[in-house]
Protein 1
Amino acid sequence: MTITRRIFVSSLAMATALSVSFAAHAQDKGLIAIITPSHDNPFFKAEAVGAEKRAQELGYETLVLVHDDDPNKQSEMYDTAIARGANAIILDNAGADATVAPVQRAKDAGIPSFLIDREIKESGIAVSQIVSNNYQGAQLGAEKFVELMGEEGNYVELLGRESDTNAGIRSSGYHDVIDQYPDLNMVAQQSANWSQTEAYGKMESILQANPDIKGVISGNDTMAMGAWAALEAAGRTDVIVVGFDGSNDVRDSIKAGGIKATVLQPAYRQAQLAVEQADQYLTSGSTGQDEKQLMDCVLIDETNADKLETFALSE
Amino acid sequence: MRDVFHLSAFCLVAAIAVTGCKIVPDPDPTEIGSASVGQTDEARMEAFAQENWEARVLPVIQENLVPLDELRAALAENTDAAGEKFGLRPKGEANPWNFAVSGQGKIIEAKLDSRAAKLGVDTTGDGAADVTVQLGPVIRGTALRDAMPFIDFTDFRDQIEFAKLATALNGMAHASTPKPEGDVIGQDLRFEGVFTLRDPAMIELVPVMLEIGG
């Protein structure tokens, strides 16, 4: 007992000492800007929180900004970060093409960018691009969807924002699996631009035109939530819905017997990893990694939903 | 990867020289196979897979080939150590190991009438299938792509192009292995191929060599 207590006390003392030393270093290590899409989507919030926490642990001040998927706004935020003399920028970007210019501008100003979640269409400008293995994840989601559908029936696909590479790659991962089953028939395929409210509206009208649908596969969780709400309102809780992201909202829906499955992107860890690579780059001049890095996704269903919390799976 | 750029650039120059005054749009120098301007991702990646199959892909597999029994023993002891010793994977965390293996066993399951045809092989002699040999034409996963040290995601435009490359390499595996016919259950199978380690008890192999008989 005494020993346990002593260890506890000494580790507490050490933790205190560590946090003091972080605070002392905070001024020295400089500023990290964290720019993401709107925190209305918990996925982006988890990224921002994960990055901010890790940056502060490593002794940086942070500047958290939101670009709302507007490339112009993103460009202004890059200028803000540059003007504020940020040492590094962590970015979940507002478009694969439109983002190339601001990242280049920061690079020219000596500020390295570390991208998470979404790629840009050029390499050699950002220092790191760490993205979920969306293709692998989409195939996992599609395999589960096919199994839930019993390999047959009419289904709907909700697509993400067209300017985002992730919308295309997930759709192609879904179809590379689903299209192998001739009895699965896609009756509608529409973009709801990653948005919950848009998905609700689209789902309502799709359902009116196609009352005989059996399943909905969605490019992300917020659209899956919107679709599920519309299905519930129409009394169609028999429809199988599968999402993508691994949000707490969808986790709760799975546990309550609503949405059937989703695919977890390790968003929280990904954001932390980007900050760690930024720190390593700033202190040693190299991340020791390739620029573009993929992180595998994990299928979430009723068997493991319990272990999911804020885009991370506990062991 | 860089020598591929140079080679393609050279081909492009040669093509212009041969055809005389033809207006050719500037290729994007950062794109793989830039000589093939205007092609779809799919066609470009198929060409890349074809160009590299015998010259680079098969040699990597031969150099890293480990007998399945030996690999199993090493994995049972320590996954990471086995990965470091025999495995291939891209840099960065959260990338699973890929292994090039050789082995043999008895075919105890066969699904040949599918776009995703496969054989279930018992390699341990316990009567249960422990290796799934993917025959295709639809082959799952990215084991072949991710096992190649000369293939770096950074050299590709985006995940879409990179996914097409995995599909194209799987297509080469399908095209270069024989399609078993008739009743193959109970026959012996020798195989070489690549798999991504997810569950050591159930290996999903992408074969590059198959020999049935005996």
Protein 2
Amino acid sequence: MDKPRTLSRTRQTPAKNMSQSVFRGSEFFSAGRLVPILLLICSAGIIASQVHRPVILLKTWLPWIDVGCLAIAMTPVIMMGGIDLSVASQVALHSVVFGLCLQAGWPLFPAISCTLCVAVFCGFVNGGLVARGRPSLLVTLATMALYRGFAMSFAGAEPVRLATPVSDPDHLPVQYIAFAGLAFFAWLLVHRTTAGRWILAVGENRTAARISGVPDRRLDVLAWTTCGLTAGLVAVMNVLQHNVAIPDSALGAELQAIACVIVGGTLITGGRGGMTGTLLGIAVVSTLDIALQFLSTRFPLISVESRMIVTGILLISVAVSTQNFAGKRSA
Amino acid sequence: MKTSNMTLPVFLALVLAGCGDSTAERPVRMAMLPKLVGIGYFDAAETGAREAASELGIELTYDGPAEARHEDQMRMIDGWNAMGIDIIAVAPNDPDGIAATLKTAVDSGVRTITWDTDANRQSSGREYFVNQAESLAIARGMVDLMVRTRESKGLPLAGSYLIVSGTPTAANQNTWIRQMTEYLQETHPEMELLPPLTPGEDQSLAQEQTTAALNAHAELNGIWGMTSVALPAAARAVTDAARTDSVCVTGVSLPSLMREYVQNGSVDSFLLWDVVDLGYLTVHVAARLHQKTLQPGRTDFGRLKNIEVRDGEVILGPPQIFDRSNIDDFSF
């Protein structure tokens, strides 16, 4: 991004510029979206042509709901120009905490409350350090290792298994409803509140935003704490679904979540983006993955190795087209 | 917008390619899911599985995650289930983690078996487990090989020993560790076990951690490598540290990965089952299950004769011991 120009423009008309950013962020059918939308349609076509038991298809997306929730929480963080690499480790840690609470015989409600308190605290540690001016990449890289380490040592490197199942494994709608609710509130927050406009302003130019009275440090704490809380929710849903808390679970989920946000058109440097894009990104990344798996049973050439290459190339092309376009518009 | 001009025809081609299949008569479709792909062990199993699939005219998909993660396995099982694959054979990375997913597959009418590693039988509802060998035979075999090696070299048994395992939650390895601990207490209480290392299915990490342990324990007597990559890693670490005279190494791995160390004398002997046969047997069991002709007792599966079928379990046979005399006879 062209720093001096952005700065001067922000100085001239901060209010007008903010409203423009919001307008851009919520614009769905822009040209930069063409590649992701095409990709989504084609992947959906492949799946539709191959599907035999459509009911199961809903379940196929279930693991992506976790990633999707994390991506939603990650969006404001990235819009502010930050990043949270620790979310996947947090999911593991909170799962173990929740699992141990239940294993100790706690009733469901106190166990959930305790887990969410731990989740808020872990997110608060990230947010607090970032608000004190530490780069979020370094902070969350450190806590990524820290939280995973806690998860492994609390669980004794063994999965925490619940003797008495607390739930029926097939409570499918709950996770989808949770996801939809989270997406709706996040959309309201980012696109319909002052805080949402502040987030974009901080991402575009933190110094300028601070001078014009945006409480950027409080926003930092809020954004990273929300990431932690979301990781806690994902962990609770996971443990309830599988009746087991696995300390080495969700490895690499943070990168998948970031990929969803980026494919959705949110600039990795902050200042541009929005929740609608992230939802599109989640849809594209998950549908593509499932479609490639469906194709690989027909064409042995699409093995895991080459599938990673294909996914990589397609995601790069999507990311390049959206990121590039967003950059051009800002200039 | 150069990208979209290029990509549009490619996507259309992919969609059209995906639309072709809607004929009524189609061969039995089977999907086989290893713990991960791209390591010698599961490549060898694929060789055997493909051999059996072409014998039986089964359309086989052999696919798995790039890293040993059960979340990826869940995704793949659900995908195959939605596609209407007839048989799914899984080597689970976590026996409980994938149980609910397997159950859904069973409930929607997919014939489900496990191979190499079992899933939780009650909660997963899997029908058969194709077992390479009884875990007790392997656990005791590993202890016996260590004792034999130390005695043949004229070294004392008393002292400390180290286990290099796979992922911390791996079911096979944890069962072996438990059974080895019990067997050692019964037969050789003077052999003490250090806490096991769990480097995952990662050879360089296993070697790093073993080297660190060798430095920390100057008095170490022996190392068991419990996965196909942990054993060569341990052998390499001991060779590099020039401690092959005092530290004996054994465990389970592939002959192709261990040839170098058996020939240079750093490893005397080790155990494994015939992995190619394991893949071969799995596909045969799956086919028999699909035809509904699988019953307890002893029976032949293709070129494998007199295989024991129990209630919910098929056993390949006793483990194979590899040493300098026979290691060149095996191709995997």
